[in-house]
Amino acid sequence: MGVEVSVEGLTKSFGSQRIWQDVTLILPTGEVSALLGPSGTGKSVFLKSLIGLLRPEQGSIVIDGTNILECSSKELYEIRKLFGVLFQDGALFGSMNLYDNVAFPLREHTKKSESDVRKIVMEKMELVGLLGAEDKLPGEISGGMRKRAGLARALVLDPQIILVDEPDSGLDPVRTTYISQTLIDINAEIDATILIVSHNINLARTVPDNIGMLFRRQLVMFGPREVLLTSDQPVVKQFLNGTMIGPIGMSEEKDEATMAAEQAMVDAGHHAGGVDDVEGIVPQMKATPGMPFRQAVARRQERVRDILHTLPENAQVAIQDSFEESFGPYDDTEDFSIYEEPLESV
Description:
Elements: E1 5-14, E2 17-27, E3 32-36, H1 43-50, E4 58-63, E5 66-67, H2 73-80, E6 83-86, H3 98-109, H4 114-127, H5 143-155, E7 161-165, H6 173-190, E8 193-197, H7 201-206, E9 210-215, E10 218-224, H8 225-229, H9 234-241, E11 248-249, E12 252-253, H10 256-267, H11 295-307, H12 313-327
Parallel strand pairs: 3-8, 3-9, 6-7, 7-8
Antiparallel strand pairs: 1-2, 1-4, 4-5, 9-10, 11-12
Helix pairs in contact: 3-4, 3-5, 4-5
Keywords: ATP-binding, Nucleotide-binding, Transport
Domain ABC transporter: 5-241
GO molecular function, one term: ATP binding
């Protein structure tokens, strides 16, 4: 099972440039979360901070009971073993075939025999749909296959936390959907805590259990997916609808005059792009039939039920509707944790 990641008051700068400040969130155990935001808002910087590649100036990152901003180098090395990371480009070694790329962490960090290595590598390559491609070089395959090979490599050490940096980068919408389905299936298979950094709207609407958004050096919000998907905050609505109308501009921020001028154009009949206020919540992607029951579903319902009264009214309604869809009429006395076998409606 995955582990909880607790971030509190995190602030990161490069010289005099503040990237983001006072970021506080919890990645719940074994759930899939997504961190969204326009390009240039520091999403990848946040991922690198979680694994200790970058060091924020303030705050804490507590993983499995250890604050990695205060621990020793030896402790950080051990904490990093909990992670699997999929980089934007897959970060494969161009001179190695896919088998050797995936086997690399096992050969580098364990003393397993080659027969054990082969068993693990083939298992992970099957999980990401790459059986039969072991002998191919990264330059001989598509971008989507390179992403899946990078994901297989991230999985071979059985990580409890998986960080995924823009899995849609360079991929068409169909292949992005395949990668998204693979991530949900992996969560069902190994119950790892997953954080996906993305600016892909469709992925944001269909994949995660929880969503956060970075904008103007702040974490705008973070919580159950229904909170952002029903939010009336202008920046959230603009981002999720992909429209020009709102505070996000080409240089990230707009002044009031620009926003007023664009709104006047829309009022005059000019189309602002995007999908124009998508109504309702798109159903969340489910694990492929035949995969284990995704334990995060029941855990999340139990967790969200406890905080339901603190959420905006629109989100409460959407959450209760989703509860009824998955488990029948909502009953706040029912213990959802008893569901450990696949349910026909899940």
